[in-house]
Specification:
19% of the residues lie in helices and 28% in strands. The structure holds 2-acetamido-2-deoxy-beta-D-glucopyranose (10 copies). InterPro entries: Beta-gal/glucu_dom_sf (IPR036156), Galactose-bd-like_sf (IPR008979), GH (IPR017853), GH2_Domain-Containing (IPR051913), Glyco_hydro_2_cat (IPR006103), Glyco_hydro_2_N (IPR006104), Ig-like_fold (IPR013783), Ig-like_GH2 (IPR006102).
Length: 660
Amino acid sequence: MRLSIGIIASLLATATLASSNSRFFRRQTNVTGYAPKEGPLDTPWTDKVGTNPWPEYPRPQLQRSQWKSLNGVWRYQNASGLNEVDAPPFEVDLASPVLVPFCLESALSGVMGNWTIFSWYQTSFTVPSSWSSGNRVLLNFGAVDYEATVFVNRQKVGFHRGGYFGFTIDVTDYLSVNGTNEMLVFAHDPTDSGTWQIPIGKQTLEPSHIFYTPCSGIWQSVWLESAPANHITQLDLSADMDGKVNVNVHSSGNASTPVEVTIYEPHSTDVKATAKGNSGSAFEFTVDSPDLWSPDSPTLYNITIKMGSDTITSYTGFRTVSKAEIDGVMRPLLNGEFVFQFGTLDQGFWPDGIYTPPTREAMIYDLQVLKRVGYNMLRKHIKIEPALFYQAADEIGIMLIQDMPSMRPSIRDPNSTNACPPNVPVGQYASQLEFNRQLELMINQLKNYPSIVTWVIYNEGWGQERRAFYPEFGLMDLVRSIDPTRLINPVTGWHDHGAGDFHDNHHYANPQCGTPFYSVASTPYDPRRIAIQGEFGGVGQNVTEDHLWKVPAAVRDINQTYEIDETVEIWNYRSHILLTELLDQVKRFACSAAVWTQTTDVEGEVNGMLTYDRRVIRMDEEQWKNDIQALYDAAAERASGNHSMVMMPRDVAERLDGSQ
Ligand SMILES: *[C@@H]1O[C@H](CO)[C@@H](O)[C@H](O)[C@H]1NC(C)=O
Ligand SMILES: *[C@@H]1O[C@H](CO)[C@@H](O)[C@H](O)[C@H]1NC(C)=O
Ligand SMILES: *[C@@H]1O[C@H](CO)[C@@H](O)[C@H](O)[C@H]1NC(C)=O
Ligand SMILES: *[C@@H]1O[C@H](CO)[C@@H](O)[C@H](O)[C@H]1NC(C)=O
Ligand SMILES: *[C@@H]1O[C@H](CO)[C@@H](O)[C@H](O)[C@H]1NC(C)=O
Ligand SMILES: *[C@@H]1O[C@H](CO)[C@@H](O)[C@H](O)[C@H]1NC(C)=O
Ligand SMILES: *[C@@H]1O[C@H](CO)[C@@H](O)[C@H](O)[C@H]1NC(C)=O
Ligand SMILES: *[C@@H]1O[C@H](CO)[C@@H](O)[C@H](O)[C@H]1NC(C)=O
Ligand SMILES: *[C@@H]1O[C@H](CO)[C@@H](O)[C@H](O)[C@H]1NC(C)=O
Ligand SMILES: *[C@@H]1O[C@H](CO)[C@@H](O)[C@H](O)[C@H]1NC(C)=O
């Protein structure tokens, strides 16, 4: 029989499809058998997580309509080492179920592992047939700690390093035409094992006192979305108090493609402003008299951006952060006015999810409690949160000081025969370069959120090279070059060499904020810079077992809390005394901002406004509200020229006299 060309073509097509079917048609990943582990402590939200966690669209400033969450039950298995990445366990069920996106160490993950340094994850997914044909399929990860190697249908599709950053992989070319796709993720997270020196914040493999359980693997949402071949990969957008909007749309094609921006009136479909430009280069336009963003009035504007056939939604707030000398004192300004910043040290740890809050509602609860008593700021302490956290701060109206996650304070020299070995100096070249790279990632990932007012580079010397050349000077310039719209606090606490916009003192329990007295670990107040008390308070109060992180090492270390108050009443009494002392410093000296340790208890640290499980609020809310309001009132009065209590260092006092 002679085959016509048409028949040959269709046989070939069938053969191709058949072979791709045998390669790509897979059974679904076995998702049965998941249950959360019984952890050392739960929260009121633990039972609400279910198996469809974090269903919200995860990236509100670059949002697409065709998307699908891949969060849920996947499979997991411990791996023995880095070499396993070369022999992925394709098409076999991994050992046990895991709930993505909860850290492997968390009870909610269903694994609750320890030393989970090398891990395999497995899931299967289909691409909705309703998605625009001809579009690309993008696979997004909110964050994987610390390195991720991703495989789709037996092919390696991407690698990412850095535990706090989102990444996107175009997987279109690796998908099955019509069927189930298998995905494997190999995660490597050394945390502080060996001599690894990487950004980890408070995570440690051997938790005690102020260092806590680590988070490994996938810990933020995973999702698919559909986008045209030439699509928006990054949006840089800032808006200031004069209505000036600066936009830079980055595209996958790198070509200059026409861009249309539409800004809507708040909670309305009415158009406030439109503008046109091209991708790949920044352009500016001005919006007429926008309502400004501030903690008292956190007005936001929704935005639509069209670039070629790609459409995304986003939002912004109009506000300007700056500094100026007001009545003899260098002050941080919001929209041209000095606003005293009072915040908590906010670590973002959860007993049930570790780095991953159990639900969005739980995450927002912390912010709402703080807002209710008048906090207008929080210092996001050496952790980077999911994008929805920043959106919540934007919406609720809380200014953020954002810390770069620190590297280990220092590495112990394993070769030392000294009983009390010296620390190996930090700042080795390779780890410094990687730290610098991740610092850039942080600024680029977070720079569009109006709530962030200040960047912090180093915390208390951790991972900070302390010999001259002092890297914080160069890093400050780097941050400023990426984001000129915010203040920078290069060194919060301890090893200050004069860089940046702030002079920052840490002192427990009582404050020394812009004062002419200071302690050994600090430096004298520097009137050229803004005075901030980057940490103080930290007074503790032990709780009954039902609110305690029931891990023996943590309970053992409770007595290392800076101060233990015997009852909640005494804790509130002590808080009032310390806030009164701060108030006095606001009136007499140069104090412009302060950070109280801390939002919640964390593991063996029992010094939160709330307990670790968020079930007990320690604060006497009326008292705290009054004490916090008194700080704002005193700062405003002081800045308006009431010198009746001023006791400044001589040079400042002389300048004040001159201005009278
Ligand atoms: C699915 O996994 C569960 C628990 O991990 C196991 O008990 C069950 O046998 C598995 N089912 C199949 C079909 O492999
Ligand atoms: C995982 O594997 C490592 C190294 O093989 C081992 O030290 C560790 O105990 C394992 N962890 C678990 C939870 O099995
Ligand atoms: C994929 O499946 C859908 C629905 O079952 C069908 O309409 C479509 O033609 C299929 N596409 C291909 C390329 O086989
Ligand atoms: C994990 O292992 C470390 C020892 O390396 C130990 O100190 C810690 O208590 C363990 N944590 C848990 C939850 O088992
Ligand atoms: C766009 O530029 C980036 C960075 O230079 C490069 O990695 C990428 O391959 C380019 N894409 C195209 C489609 O040219
Ligand atoms: C932005 O759009 C979302 C979705 O339509 C809506 O829920 C929200 O209220 C809008 N926000 C503002 C500030 O207009
Ligand atoms: C310890 O000694 C070994 C062998 O001399 C050397 O390779 C290693 O770098 C030393 N470690 C440190 C932290 O100095
Ligand atoms: C704190 O309370 C727990 C039990 O609630 C107890 O085991 C522990 O010894 C207490 N620690 C201190 C320092 O009071
Ligand atoms: C805390 O208690 C442990 C024993 O429970 C003890 O060894 C240690 O010295 C105490 N530390 C302080 C600072 O009191
Ligand atoms: C100035 O401050 C002092 C001390 O706080 C206060 O007693 C006085 O009423 C203030 N004066 C004015 C005009 O507000």
